[in-house]
Amino acid sequence: MTGKVTCFLPCRAGSQRIVRKNIKPFAGFEHGLIQVKLRQLLAAEQIDNVILSTNDLDILAFAESLNEPRLRLHQRGEWLASNDTSTDQLVAHALELIPEGHILWTHVTSPFITEKHYDQIIQNYFEQLRNGYDSLMTTTAIYGFLWQAEQPLNYDRCIEKWPRTQTLRPVHEINSGAFLASSEIYRELDDRIGRRPSLYELDKLVSYDIDWPEDFLIAQCMVDNGLAAV
Fold first, then answer.
1. What are phi and psi of 65, to 5 degrees?
2. pLDDT digits 0-9 by tens, 14-52
3. End-to-end distance of the chain based on CA atoms, in angstroms?
4. From the CB of residue 144, how many other CB atoms can be counted at a distance below 10 Å?
5. How confident is the model over 157-197, as pLDDT tens digits?
6. Closest by alpha carbon to 58, among 69, 44, 73?
7. Could you give the C-alpha distances from 53 to 13, 42, 216, in angstroms and in order?
8. Between 32-43 and 57-65, two packed helices, what is the crossing angle to 10 degrees?
9. Sign of CA dihedral 221, 146, 177, 116
10. Residue 193's closest CA among 135, 124, 138, 139?
11. Phi and psi of 147, rounded to 5°?
């Protein structure tokens, strides 16, 4: 089971936490995270096309300068780029731009998910479709003492009060590195995952997400010290 895979890359202007986060210099790239991510996505063999949806005119100008035939640019309306814009609204927006085929949703804020990872994720997605799953999302496994509502979430203190962390049942955190589903899922469920998503585990370094100012600094240090590559 295969099909056309189109990447949906939402990238709005006006980051509240990090000024010009998506286009400020990073890891030796003048145009920063957007340059890194477009380079990775366009190098992935399993991605047929990339749709960049943004209201940032500087990002649009840079992307247009690449003159890449597989890259399609969409100037997003401001009503879809505010702090109040919901993910549900972006789901509908993604389907409007990609009405057919399979949609890979990713973000520039995951700079260490490279073309190699995207190709592996897409290959695994099609394999899991054959196994009865209907979608895929990347996760990070947490092995720790997790509590919710004043109770242990992933271990039983009646059996063992402090089990070894490596024996705990992992809890999977959605890291937003990638979501993969068909346009039919988007249309039927108004969602970017289906009723039975496959969980594709990424390690902490690969799935590192840049959200806060300290995240940006740490990510740069990771690159400088050879702990991560873009």
1. -70, -20
2. 777 788 999 999 999 999 999 999 999 999 999 999 999
3. 30
4. 13
5. 999 999 999 899 999 999 999 999 999 999 999 999 999 99
6. 73
7. 11, 15, 22
8. 40
9. positive
10. 135
11. -120, 150
Tokens representing residue 3 in the block:
């099909």
Evaluate whether 136 touches 121 at the Cβ level (below 8 Å): yes
Residue at 48: amino acid letter: D
Q: What are phi and psi of 6, to 5 degrees?
A: -115, 130
Say what the pTM is. Answer: 0.94
**Alpha-carbon distance 229 to 111, whole Å?**
8
Q: What span, in angstroms and rounded, lies between the C-alpha atoms of 31 and 52?
A: 15
SS (H, E, C) the chain: CCCCEEEEEECCCCCCCCCCCCCCCECCECCHHHHHHHHHHHHCCCCCEEEEEECCHHHHHHHHHCCCCCEEEEECCHHHCCCCCCHHHHHHHHHHHCCCCEEEEECCCCCCCCHHHHHHHHHHHHHHHHCCCCEEEEEEEECCCCEECCEECCCCCCCCCCCCHHHCCCEEEEEEEEEEEEHHHHHHHCCCCCCCEEEEECCCCCCCCCCCHHHHHHHHHHHHCCCCCC
